[in-house]
Amino acid sequence: MMVTPAGQPDRDAVRELLARLRMQHPQLTLIWGDSAYAGTLVEWARRFLRLTLKIVTKLPGQTGFKVLARRWIVERSIGWPMNARRNVIDYERLPQHSEAHLTWAAITLMTKCLTRTNTALWDQAREVSP
Fold first, then answer.
1. Residue 91 CB: number of other CB atoms within 10 A?
2. Which residue in 16, 74, 118, 122 has its CB near the most CB atoms, within 10 A?
3. Are 66 and 129 in the same domain?
4. How far apart are CA 33 and CA 44, in angstroms?
5. In 3D, which of 37, 22, 114, 119 has the Cα closest to residue 71?
């Protein structure tokens, strides 16, 4: 995960994030993104990082909000760490501090999922959208 200033668009920070991701997880080969990441980024990721970046686009004729396959998994996963009170309001002075708190929340969530006898949340986290 990577925290950036609020004024910096995600599209500007994604190259650094993908480079970090590639270094930390070289086994990954496929990344899903929304239409904000379409264009030259797809070719850059393929050429320099050997990653396939697939863009999830809106359905033809779609108006308003509709759950799209694979994008909903990302949005849902981003929302889970926000259940930790510390992450709801930005108290930190440095982005690295926010990243640490978000990482801690993700570790806590996964630990709870792995130690639960009721695996509904874990099953939901692992499900693959059509």
1. 10
2. 122
3. yes
4. 14
5. 37
My answer on whether 64 and 124 are in the same domain is: yes
Same domain, residue pair 39 and 14 = yes
For 22, the domain range is 1-57
| Domain termination residue (choose one: 40, 57, 74) | 57
44 and 67 assigned to the same domain: no
Question: What would the pLDDT profile of 2-18 be if each residue is shown by its tens digit?
Answer: 888 888 888 888 999 99
Residues 76 and 106 placed together within one structural domain of the fold: yes
In sequence order, what are the beta bridge partners of 53? 31
Give the CA dihedral 67, 90, 11, 81, nearest 10 degrees.
-40
* Length in residues, the chain: 130
Which 8-state DSSP code applies to residue 55?
E
pLDDT in tens, 21-80: 999 999 999 998 888 888 899 999 999 999 999 988 888 888 887 777 777 777 777 777
b or e along 17-52 (b: 16 or more beta carbons within 10 Å of the residue's beta carbon)?
A: ebeebbeeeeeeeebbbbeebeeebbeebeeebebe
